[in-house]
Design a protein that fits this description.
Strand order of the largest sheet: 7-6-5-4-3-2-1-8
Oligomer: single chain
Helix content: 25-40%
């Protein structure tokens, strides 16, 4: 393992600069858009622009950075879209917001991992990849090059900022195995079948090549002591022979681990089985920690047991699953479940090089909107307030 010893405690600022409908449904009111790609096509320019600008100004502010610091965390992972520089109509750029975030982070002693979360025509077909049911980016050389230029411009702008922890090349590029197990075309149906023509998962060969090229471009502007982060493409142990050469310094392997995926793979919905699953994961993390510092860049406490019903692998009312309208799990029992899985998960991530919780906050009204009971554990602030998440000072 190359580079210095690393241990990070962080949180994602999800749904701030990259929208996810389930995390703030009101932004999508009056449309049937399921993702950020189609939102501007269903609103007038004025309404779209007003909604986006108000959301960005109010969702994350200076006060949030002070709260994150007070929670005992040291780093924030900020998902950004490929149109961050405002050069892809009709989308509105958000480089100004990222500039502000760097100023806040530096003021309060936090660091930032910039996470390039989306790609034109998507790297995964998820709603959080920008456009549901479409995954064609890696087949489009011009768009691949565009994505590389975005990384290069981010590196140039922030490479020498004190607040830069690192840059993540690409969030959750999907390969064939996860494409099939998640059944992406059914879980995230394409709004326009014609637009989705030719959609298929990326190949490992392509993703590896992209990572190598991106590393070179980022390192032109980012000093070696800052981190370059690669996502494991949902194959944690497939990277043992990758970037072994001396030139690759301070490369971090990011793995995303959700209990809803464990459930999707057949894990029984009991605390004992969740903990057993996490302990096996800890062994894999320890194994891969010999090759790269491994961080769990996305995870949360959410599980079907604490919700009180089988969520079918974390599918929500937006996926057509009928949620609960009243709590079936008592407050003390819920706390017991969450504390047990929190302890096991933190133990596993700390056997690696740390974590980033998903997410800092959730704007879904889990009390008044039918079907969302039990989804509040996606909100780290609430988890801390309710005593579900142990603050590690």
């Amino acid at each position: 393992m190359k580079g210095r010893k690393l241990q990070v405690k962080g949180v994602n600022l999800g749904n701030w600069l990259v929208l996810e409908k389930w995390m703030s449904p009101s932004l999508f009111e009056g449309t049937d858009a399921e993702d950020e790609y189609y939102l501007p096509t269903q609103l007038s320019r004025e309404v779209y622009e007003a909604r986006i600008r108000i959301h960005r100004a109010e969702y994350i502010t200076e006060r949030d950075f002070t709260r994150i610091k007070a929670m005992g965390l040291d780093t924030v992972r900020i998902p950004v879209p490929y149109f961050i520089f405002g050069d892809r109509e009709p989308f509105i750029g958000c480089i100004g917001e990222l500039d502000k975030a760097f100023n806040w982070a530096e003021k309060y002693g936090l660091q930032i991992l910039i996470d390039l979360h989306t790609a034109p025509d998507s790297q995964n077909g998820f709603d959080n990849g920008g456009i549901s049911g479409v995954c064609k980016w890696s087949q489009e050389p011009d768009e691949v090059e565009f994505e590389l230029t975005v990384l290069e411009r981010l590196a140039e702008r922030y490479g020498n900022r004190k607040g830069l922890w690192g840059i993540e090349i690409l969030n959750e590029p999907i390969l064939e195995d996860m494409w099939e197990s998640m059944n992406v075309p059914e879980r995230y149906p394409a709004a326009d079948p014609k637009k989705a023509e030719g959609t298929k998962p990326n190949t490992m060969e392509f993703i590896r090549g992209f990572y190598l090229e991106a590393y070179d471009r980022i390192r032109r502007h980012v000093p070696e002591e800052k981190y370059v982060v690669i996502h494991d493409a949902f194959r944690l142990k497939a990277w043992k022979d990758f970037m072994r050469e001396e030139k690759y310094q301070n490369v971090v392997l990011d793995t995303h681990q959700y209990l809803m995926v464990a459930e999707m793979q057949g894990c029984e919905q009991t605390v004992d089985h969740y903990v057993k699953y996490i302990r096996n994961l800890k062994k894999d993390i320890e194994e891969m920690q010999q090759y790269f510092p491994v961080v769990c860049g996305e995870w949360c406490l959410f599980n079907s047991l604490a919700v009180g019903q089988d969520t079918k692998g974390g599918q929500s009312v937006l996926n057509g699953v009928d949620g609960l309208n009243q709590e079936l799990v008592g407050a003390e029992e819920k706390k017991r479940i969450y504390r047990a899985v929190a302890e096991a998960q933190l133990d596993a991530w700390n056997a690696g090089s740390g974590y980033f919780y998903w997410s800092y906050k959730l704007l879904t009204d889990t009390v008044n909107i039918p079907g969302w009971v039990g989804w509040d554990s996606w909100d780290l602030g609430r988890c801390v307030d309710f005593g579900w998440f142990p603050i590690e000072k």
